[in-house]
Amino acid sequence: MSVKQSLKISTAGAVAVLLLGSITTFAADASAATTRYEAESAPAVCDGTIDSNHSGFSGSGFCNGANAVDSSAQFTVTPEAAGTATLGIRFANGTTSARPVDLVVNGTTAQSVSFEPTGAWSSWSTKSVTVPLNSGGNTVRLEPTTTAGLPNIDYLDVTDGGDPPLGDGRKMESLGRGVVAVRSGSDSVLVSWRLLGLDPEGIGFNVYRSTAGGQETKLNSSVLTGGTNYVDSTANLSQANTYRVRPVIDGVEQPASGAFTLSANHATEPVVRVPLRSGGPVKFVWVGDLDGDGEYDYVLDRQTSPQTIEAYRSNGEFLWSVNMGPNSTDQNNIEGGSSTIDVGHNDGVTVYDFDSDGRAEVAVRIANGVRFGDGTTYDDLPNNTRQAIAILDGMTGAARATAPVPTDYLSDGPMYARFGVGHLDGENPSLVAYMKNRIGNGGFNLMFTAWRFSGSTLTQEWKFLRGNQNLPDGHNTRVIDVDGDGRDEVAEIGFVLNGDGTLKYSLGPQGVVHGDRFHIADMDPNRPGLEGYAVQQDNPSGLREYYYAAATGTMIWRHTASGTADVGRGMAGDIDPRHPGMEVWSFSGLYNAPTNRLAEPNTSLQPWPQTGLWWDGDITMELLNDGKFEKWDPNDPRPTNSLPRLLSTWNYGAVDASQNVQPTFHGDILGDWREEVVYTNASYDELIIFTTDRPSSTRLYTLAHNPAYRNDMTVKGYMQSHHVDYFLGAGMARPPQPDITYSGR
């Protein structure tokens, strides 16, 4: 047979989006030229044996590498021209542990790749990575980093000029399909997966199942072009079943996704369980692709003394721990230690791919005495009040860069921090740090800074000091493009900063003061731009809640009452399809935001204003309230304590974390566009991830590829709903394709 086989693949076509029973299409276009290099054929070199004893391989065999660190598989590839190429590495790993490998291109390690278990040696998967190649000959070498060696390697597909269509916008994660399967009934499994932000029109999917490590079987009779989920009612659930999907473009099947295995005799539950090491209580979980495989991994805190941060792969494999040191033992909510994290509305940690290399880093505010994941102790500051920001390697927890926190307010002690991520220049991610400390026993200093990580250095982009300006802050920050110019702004409950750190506007002169909750979203689809909604705490004017134009701060309406009140909660989301746009509510009634009219005339009937959640598959919002997934029914309105309930998290062993009512995280991290909610069990040795078990015909690209939504996944504070930058609700228009590129491309 030939050493290489050329496969020309066109990605033009039309994708169908099912919204409100109608089909809509949107356009994208790309083409790809793929060349296949078989591992068993020269000039490929296998440090091991060429075998054919496991079925499902391509060509005449596969490379079975020696179980040693110095074993490898090497390919010589010759793209048509220099440039970025996508490598599709087909492999099988019949063990129960991932096999980490360094991908070495032309003598330089391009990235580390984890080859996860595929369920059996006859079950093959494809790992896609993107690398630069020269014109002419290139060597691509797979070098194992443990004595377990390589997985079995079948072939290498090299696609030059075949990336998904890339805009010139912001750099975001190159996600995989996020395949997940839950047992949804006694004889049924719901399998769901991601539609990506830059998937071409015309893309469809086939779903495959392997039972007990056997041959894969395609389950659907025709290509799936509706909702990105599938109900499997034919599986033998007494055995383990492994699922993966294959995209179909112009009738041609593409490489398979990563696999998800539902264990034998699995419980009927809408839950994925991820094991953790034993440890103390967990308040927050962050997600990011730490190992570059396209799927989200987990970073979490331990509320011990001293505090710690831990990182885990998506399958629960422990990666590293950081000890926050003796300056984290004072955990006062307002004036604690210089390295204390995650108290009150403060965090000081977030996770994102800051240098856009395809692997996420961890940002953390530190002080002397912090011990990083590689065992190194930080002691570079002149005293224990001074602080710094560190960027940690996502795979090792080692510090890749540190930079001192500005000392403008140092005389009032260390500063607590709240971190977020935004693309302030419209292209590159920046770390945004809200930092605050108390002035004596009175007011508070407030400083915002923005930081850029180059891959080796951390540079401060700008600093903003509130000083004595009338700029009300709250308990949450949102980093979002409020004016639609492609560049993110930094929003507080009472003011907004431009992406360059200058003041855009303040709501203080319009009577706004401090408050606990605010939302920015496209609440009125018939009005251009985004809107804001917020509630107030003890406003002396009697202001309870207000609704404004997010781009300018122009007030649209406000609700006032006599006296003062601490309006501690406020929500925004489309929960009543009878009215255009979103509803907003605190405790004085359920209002339709665009019209400022009561959606429910009886003000004693309304949902509790805690957190929104997309869960059941329709495009109106569900609600998360202290461990209860609830649904507002406008035709059967009820008081807050008696809404119809979809599930209760405690029935699956989950316990609340932040503020004793919140999960550790919520967001779209698995499966289709609907959201996951992450808790721990009472022993803190397991993540309990709630993921929907309900089929849906609605087809939307993953919310994690929406810029506004993904930014908000990086923010904690008093946790609130995430929002996309288009209207998502009843009567919605087709959402535009996001103006993004994929990191590492």
From TrEMBL:
<dbReference type="InterPro" id="IPR017868">
    <property type="entry name" value="Filamin/ABP280_repeat-like"/>
</dbReference>
<dbReference type="InterPro" id="IPR049366">
    <property type="entry name" value="RGL11_C"/>
</dbReference>
<dbReference type="InterPro" id="IPR028994">
    <property type="entry name" value="Integrin_alpha_N"/>
</dbReference>
<dbReference type="InterPro" id="IPR013783">
    <property type="entry name" value="Ig-like_fold"/>
</dbReference>
<dbReference type="Pfam" id="PF18370">
    <property type="entry name" value="RGI_lyase"/>
</dbReference>
<dbReference type="InterPro" id="IPR041624">
    <property type="entry name" value="RGI_lyase"/>
</dbReference>
<protein>
    <submittedName>
        <fullName>Carbohydrate-binding protein</fullName>
    </submittedName>
</protein>
<feature type="signal peptide">
    <location>
        <begin position="1"/>
        <end position="27"/>
    </location>
</feature>
<dbReference type="InterPro" id="IPR008979">
    <property type="entry name" value="Galactose-bd-like_sf"/>
</dbReference>
<keyword id="KW-0732">Signal</keyword>
<dbReference type="InterPro" id="IPR055240">
    <property type="entry name" value="CBM13-like"/>
</dbReference>
<dbReference type="Pfam" id="PF21348">
    <property type="entry name" value="RGL11_C"/>
</dbReference>
<dbReference type="InterPro" id="IPR034641">
    <property type="entry name" value="RGL11"/>
</dbReference>
<dbReference type="InterPro" id="IPR005084">
    <property type="entry name" value="CBM6"/>
</dbReference>
<dbReference type="Pfam" id="PF22704">
    <property type="entry name" value="CBM13-like"/>
</dbReference>
<feature type="domain" description="CBM6">
    <location>
        <begin position="35"/>
        <end position="159"/>
    </location>
</feature>
